[in-house]
Amino acid sequence: MPLILLGSNSYRGELAPLDESGVEYTHLASLTVAASEAPVRAFVKVYPRAYVGGQTARGLVNELVGYFCAERAGLPVPPTAGLISLQHAQLSTPPAWLDPGQPVIGWWSQDAGFPSIRATWNLQALPQGSAALIHAMAQAREFLIKHCSTPSIVALDDLIANVDRNLGNLLHSPGSLTLIDHGRSLTGPAWRRPDLVAGNAFMNVVRDLLGPAAETLPFRGAVMAEYTTIVSKVSPAMPELKQLLDHLLDPLDSRAAHDFLHGRSAPGSIARRIGVVA
Ligand SMILES: Nc1ncnc2c1ncn2[C@@H]1O[C@H](COP(=O)(O)OP(=O)(O)OP(=O)(O)O)[C@@H](O)[C@H]1O
Ligand SMILES: [Mg+2]
Q1: Where are the domains of the chain?
Q2: Cα 184 to middle of ligand 2, angstroms
Q3: What is the crossing angle of helices 251-264 and 238-248, to 10°?
Q4: In this predicted model, what pLDDT tens digit does every residue of 168-182 receive, in sequence order?
Q5: Span from the CA of 119 to the centroid of ligand 1 (angstroms)
Q6: At what angle do helices 251-264 and 59-72 cross, to 10 degrees?
């Protein structure tokens, strides 16, 4: 499903508040995605344009890159997603950093209807350091070690340099894991061009969570195989992604983001990072 650009008249209003949410103004809303169809429930995220200190916030473009690459790779993502223009007055509790005089562009993704792994194992509610949390984390880790989708998730996150695949960003869907929240891909939320060095290794949360299980040769081989499959599907779509980037970024940043992904798509690119001979 292609990314969909919605105007502010598609925003029908805010629904229930979220149990889990990060720093962005993430909320559940009702959206009209197609005039002929019933409204959909969607998670809408409003990123600031810049962080305190003036760094350009990259969350919106990162979301777009992550969804685009995952969807083209054939990995499970929410059925529809895209950008939406919003007016300040449409938000019930607009964050202080939002300029009341300016419309803002948000990221939205249709509610996939599944809880995250974090919610499934109730990780957010268990006290830090408690035996219950340690036990639940061990169970979630074991689930991921055994899940057939895990190598593809590690591979995708390596390709797009997503440094935030925390367990709230994987939805526990029957037989698969649905990927959401790519706001920290392309190395992080406030990347600058010098950060986008295609050959570099970046944090990979799922791989780190698996620990020694991710170091075995069969696992690394499976990641490598998934990476090859993913880049074979994403590479032909790179010109289309570049066009999207050109709408959101200045020309030098757009070129840098494109070249970063293009460079990481080269045969054998991941092999050097995970220590497998291509
Ligand atoms: N499309 C979706 N379908 C189902 N659930 C979703 C979807 N998008 C977000 N959620 C739920 O909302 C939570 C917060 O969304 P998301 O991770 O995108 O925002 P966030 O504010 O960046 O969170 P965090 O900073 O904690 O990672 C997710 O953990 C998940 O439970
Ligand atoms: Mg998240």
Answers
A1: 4-110, 117-274
A2: 9
A3: 150
A4: 999 999 999 999 999
A5: 11
A6: 40
Which CATH class for the 117-274 domain?
A: mainly alpha
In contact, 147 and 178? CB cutoff 8 Å: no
**Distance between CA atoms of residues 194 and 42, nearest Å:** 34
Alpha carbon nearest to ligand 1 atom 10, residue:
43
Of 15, 18, 20, the one to substitute when testing ligand 1's pocket (max ligand atoms within 8 A of C-beta) is 20
pTM (predicted TM-score): 0.95
Residue nearest to atom 21 of ligand 1 (CA): 22
SS3 178: strand
Minimal-distance CA residue to ligand 1 atom 15:
21
